[in-house]
Amino acid sequence: MAAFLLLAGMVVVGYMIFHNIFVKGAVCKSNVKLHGKTVIVTGSNTGIGKMTALDLARRGARVILACRNKQRAEAALADIKRESGSDEVVFMHLDLGSLKSVRSFAETFLKTERRLDLLINNAGIYMQGSTEDGLGMMFGVNYIGHFLLTNLLLDRLKECGPSRVVNVASLGHNFGKIDFNCLSTHKELGVGKSATDVFNIYCNSKLCNVVFTHELAKRLKDTNVTCYSLHPGIIETELGRYANSAFLMLLKPISMLFFKNSVAGSQTTLHCALQEGLEPLSGCYFSNCTVRNVYPKARDDAVAKKLWEVSESLCGLL
């Protein structure tokens, strides 16, 4: 019995050390206050987006919750106002799966809001299907919607600088690829409906986020706007709420032990949004509040330029 208790104790201590170092991860150390600043956080009605918005509201920012689902957004709005003690939190409807909705959001925002200091492109989805514009769902929501939104708001960001754009990507971008032939033929980053196909398409969309950030930084050179992409960690969120229910049930015990919660998952986003002195690292990719190297495919200038041009065409920005 003594040996068993000793072994059990060692397992518990080992897990606690593992959890604090690898699961919980680093914490944003910035004490910056944001009174008089305005931020947009997409997908901020749940998960790391909601925790990001809450933190920014506590710092005094005017926070725009840019969300698709009105009911869930209004519930999050009430929570964030109550927990932050701030009335400077506003819901504005945004459906990233609709280019019309993105344009409408940007038009309304620019008419009603005087400033924009932080744009946090956080929203993401993990499911197959097509947007109303005929784009692949993950390509459209995870990337193209944010590409258009960012471009429509860039002038305001420049006017209010120094300002930042933060793109929430994923470690999964390492497994991604950008197939321009597939994009041309299907307006999608891949075909197939198997679990492997869906995972690959998701990773492809996240590679687009990282490549977009690389190109955006080049185009923002000599302006007072900087941009960053990041991996938030492996998070226990609602990203996969459309995934197979049996798979989610099997994943639940693993996620409870080894996945970050939403507060821990928001820390690298907050670091990129708030940490002083990051300007020389514009265009870089972060994980665990630390800048990381990326594979050549994520910083390929020719691919980045082509993706930008294809995206402009798909959005009607040309």
TrEMBL record:
Pfam families: adh_short (PF00106). Keywords: Oxidoreductase. Gene3D superfamilies: NAD(P)-binding Rossmann-like Domain. It comes from the Eukaryota. This is Dehydrogenase/reductase (SDR family) member 13b.1. Transmembrane segments: none annotated. Belongs to the short-chain dehydrogenases/reductases (SDR) family. GO terms for molecular function: oxidoreductase activity.
